[in-house]
Amino acid sequence: EDQVTQSPEALRLQEGESSSLNCSYTVSGLRGLFWYRQDPGKGPEFLFTLYSAGEEKEKERLKATLTKKESFLHITAPKPEDSATYLCAVQAENTDKLIFGTGTRLQVFP
Amino acid sequence: EAGVVQSPRYKIIEKKQPVAFWCNPISGHNTLYWYRQNLGQGPELLIRYENEEAVDDSQLPKDRFSAERLKGVDSTLKIQPAELGDSAVYLCASSTRVDTEAFFGQGTRLTVV
What we know:
The structure holds two protein chains of two kinds.
Chain A: E1 3-7, E2 10-14, E3 19-26, E4 30-38, E5 45-50, E6 56-59, E7 62-66, E8 70-75, E9 84-92, E10 98-100, E11 104-109
Parallel strand pairs in A: 2-11
Antiparallel strand pairs in A: 1-3, 3-8, 4-5, 4-9, 6-7, 7-8, 9-10, 9-11
Chain B: E1 5-7, E2 10-13, E3 19-24, E4 31-37, E5 44-50, E6 53-56, E7 65-69, E8 75-79, E9 88-95, E10 103-104, E11 108-112
Parallel strand pairs in B: 2-11
Antiparallel strand pairs in B: 1-3, 3-8, 4-5, 4-9, 5-6, 7-8, 9-10, 9-11
């Protein structure tokens, strides 16, 4: 069964304290892995798509990487405005279905 | 470019009453999704459209939920009758193709009392 597990569930960081969020997945043939950011009361906002192991994408303080079993979202020198829930989703080749994890709730304190 | 537009933003109804949600996707996006998101959980797919055809509705509770996408553009999701367990945020998303990133609307927060 296709599955996505995100860890940790919640993360509290001091401003400037770099860290990583993990997304482990089990899927029979990965078509793509997607990272989204979700602020309270809003819909998920697209960040990155990764398609193959070894691929990396960057945007401001965020960098996403992909292996055959997991993806990491690295946050370098975070700021309070980076506080949000970060969602990972995988799409399987055989079903086209997009399966979301439960997210990591990130809080960055000044 | 306008994003995905959903209405209403909030809806409070009594159980057993009907409710409908509306979605206008990004212009040119052929794929449209309806998701349900419970508190503290990730979105779960209810139905996916390719143009006006529903190609994946395996997670849609068909006894009470229905959806349509007229002319392959706007879409409506209906619940009749609503139950207490239907309280959630209903998200609409669209993408150019099924294998590209989906863009989400703000969602409709449904509370059934």
